[in-house]
Design brief:
alpha+beta, 4-stranded antiparallel β-sheet, 10 strands, about 25% helix
């Protein structure tokens, strides 16, 4: 079962060259000399739930206590730039925000496409109504009203890639109605019912969202490939991804087929009892998509608070590299086999210093005469 930890690069940034050129020569007395304008230092804000990992170097590879010699990698010293890292795994409740966002996006997109097919035009207020027309695409302007730019995109015949997508904005201000007995009209009902499993696939007639439709799309740039080539088009390095982001809950049955884990398969991801437990059944591609969503989600929230035209962006969230993970896990210790140093597994009272199996057939740690351990996962920070 895979779990997610997200890191964000911690950088000390100076002014970019473009910014410097913009500020130079803007002093009160322009005597023809280019002088950089003094600006205040910028410090990145620590994202919530993350801790700063300072820059430094460490010995990568086999330790002094690796008596089994199972790691044949040569020992070398590597340097790591400072970065932020989550202090725990991503929890079920945090990943649910991602799943719910994708679910709402798919519903709103389907409603907007249906409204467009029916002839509802957001640029023409006379066509608006309280039914499915209220979910039609809107303008990207601050008030949602049509602008000359929207008219240009609508009527332009230049064939520029992405024009139609640029012109279409989902109406996030309109509340979605999920209660089937409160659907505003028949067209709305038709679209929403298409998001659920068809009747022949339902269990005991229960209506559930078809998780196969929860696909997230995003675009990245292959910077490594771009750095090796010059004079080519940007589209050559543009990589589009579209993948299903719902966790594979069947891992509870597949990975633990010797015990009765069907309740975990059914309830672990959504039940509030497991809200603060690590999300499982998420692969590397889904974890990467979650990082993209987390960056987009944060940027959207910041820009909603800013005045229009003063866009701000956070440092992109990403997965830690293998070296960053090992560096953070060592906690500043060198040549140590365990986080507490080593070489012993117990303290002076004979208590285990980590979550080791205490005795044969018993995986639950005993504290004060009571078994307080956890069979599988445990809440974060425990």
């Amino acid at each position: 079962m895979n779990r997610i930890l997200v890191s964000a690069l911690l950088l000390s940034l100076s002014l970019s060259s473009c910014k410097m050129l913009k500020n130079r020569g803007s002093s009160d007395r322009n005597d023809g000399q280019i002088v950089s304008k003094t600006s205040s230092a910028w410090t990145p804000v620590r994202p919530k739930g993350m801790v700063p990992i300072p820059s430094g170097s460490f010995v990568l590879g086999q330790t002094d206590y690796d008596f089994t010699k199972t790691n044949d990698a040569p020992v070398k010293t590597v340097t790591v730039t400072g970065f932020f890292m989550d202090d725990t795994e991503i929890t079920n409740s945090e990943y649910q925000i991602f799943v719910n966002y994708v679910k709402d996006s798919i519903a709103r997109t389907a409603l907007a496409n249906k409204a467009e097919t029916l002839g509802f035009d957001p640029m023409n207020p006379s066509t608006e109504n309280d039914g499915i027309g209220a979910y039609a695409y809107v303008s990207g302007s601050a008030d949602g009203e049509g602008t000359p730019y929207d008219e240009y995109l609508k009527n332009s015949n230049t064939g520029r890639d992405g024009q139609s997508l640029d012109a279409k904005k989902l109406n996030w201000k309109q509340r979605l109605e999920w209660d089937k007995y409160k659907y505003p009209d028949v067209d709305y009902a038709e679209v929403m019912e298409g998001l659920y499993y068809p009747p022949e696939e339902r269990m005991n007639g229960e209506r559930r969202i078809d998780t196969r439709k929860l696909n997230y799309s995003y675009v990245t740039v292959d910077q490594t490939a771009a750095a090796k080539k010059r004079g080519t088009f940007r589209v050559d390095f543009r990589k589009e991804f579209s993948l299903n982001i719902y966790p594979d809950t069947t891992v509870w049955v597949r990975d633990f087929n010797y015990s009765y884990n069907d309740p975990m398969h059914q309830d672990y991801f959504w039940h509030k009892a497991y809200a603060n437990y690590p999300v499982v059944g998420v692969n590397w591609n889904q974890a990467t998509a979650f990082c993209d969503f987390r960056t987009r989600y944060h940027n959207t929230a910041l820009n909603n608070k800013k005045k229009r035209g003063s866009q701000v962006k956070v440092i992109s969230y990403r997965l830690p590299t293998e070296i960053e993970w090992e560096y953070a896990a060592k906690g500043g210790l060198e040549n140590a086999p365990y986080p507490w140093g080593g070489p012993y597994l117990t303290d002076d009272r004979g208590c285990y210093l980590a979550n080791f199996k205490p005795k044969r057939g018993d995986y639950l740690e005993i504290n004060d005469g009571k078994k307080t351990g956890y069979m599988y996962t445990a809440p974060v920070k425990t």
